[in-house]
Predict the structure.
Amino acid sequence: MYEEKKKNHEDPLEPIPSYAGVGEVQEGAHDAVFGEITGEGPNYRNVGWLGTSVLMMKTQIGLGVLSIPVAFDALGVVPGVIVLIAIAAITTWSDYIIGVFKLRHREVYGIDDVGELLFGKTGRIVLGTAFCLWWIFVAGSGMLGISIGLNAVSDHAVCTAVYVVIAFIVTVILGSIQTLGRISWIAWLGLFCILTSILIVTVAVGLQDRPSAAPKDAVWVPDYKIAANPSFTDAITAVSTIVFAYAGTPAFFSLAAEMREPRHFNKALILCQSVVTGFYLAIGIVIYYYCGSYVSSPALGSAGPVVKKVSYGFALPGLIASTLLFIHITGKYIFVRILQGSRHLTSNTPIHWMVWLGCTFGVGLIAYIIASAIPVFSDLVSLVGALLGTPMCFQPMAGMWLYDNWSKGNVHRTTRWYAMVAWCAFVIIAGTFLMIGGTYGSIVSIIASYNETGGSAAWSCADNSV
């Protein structure tokens, strides 16, 4: 199937997607993923590079950044910074490869397409299933994050289970907006709000005399560690937490597919990773320096109850924006797979709307049920992140480079070719180690958590913001 598509794409007579301007569709334009683009349906190719960069940031800055100071506490600030920069470098390269691969293989829409190119139908099924499960669990985690924010702002005025239902309804409705181009304004708002909320906490912890959780009956001396001595389980869990903060990578396939001009993908990527990494370093170092071992998780609770309310008030739009993106991207992936090759994909027909709304509602409903019904959900997200999220950010991208460049070694093996093969091998080995180690650490954490507390009750009313 892909050989045929590749031949078709390389045919110089094939029409290339082209747009007259922002929001305008050139009649008869053809996209290798979405098919015929006309004015009668949604324009799936209408996201500029700046909007793409904001969407990239919003898939990453959200749930993960709030746990970085805790990861620094486990590793120590210097090893924590080194690990964060290393993971930033590897994931930036992985994201870069997505942009390059998309230009060479226009028919690629998701990571499952890569799986089929590399390993056939088995690869498509494995990576496609992993992609859906990963984002559904993250969407569920996002709904719980919203419920935490609502509890914090309202002093637990309503049963937490009701807040999770509210989060489900709001994110599914907003996530059902048809195109990423129309969602980008929400991403702008969400990004501004989440950055503001974390900056408020960062400034507040610097101004207070001690973190909120520190003892009140003694002189407070910051107990941050330059280098810690964690157990293997604590260390690998901390590293997995940092990986989670960069785990928006699988969504970048969908973002590239909806760009007006995919050649600007790297421009968007550079802006995204620069802002994200700089922000992670600043927030992680400053909050951990002032809070030490008494840093809260999530970090928004580190500066006391008043600042906690204010910061969560600002964070809520950001948490909503992240969660609706997770629902939208997963629903869009399933939607495209169901209707690809059909006129209903790009036309506003009844079938188009029934399938689209069924996909977003179904993804949101499954995420809600999993988040509300599983007693150890937060630990389970860590397990799924290690088992599914990590291998979607590392190994496939190394395989993509090898797929496009291995044959060049049969012609002319340059020093650069050898270096890149070695780099790809390192990425595959590192990703596999993090997957196995992170999975082990998560299982140990789940067992310890369940033995200690028995987990939370299904559809619990208890305040989850304390």
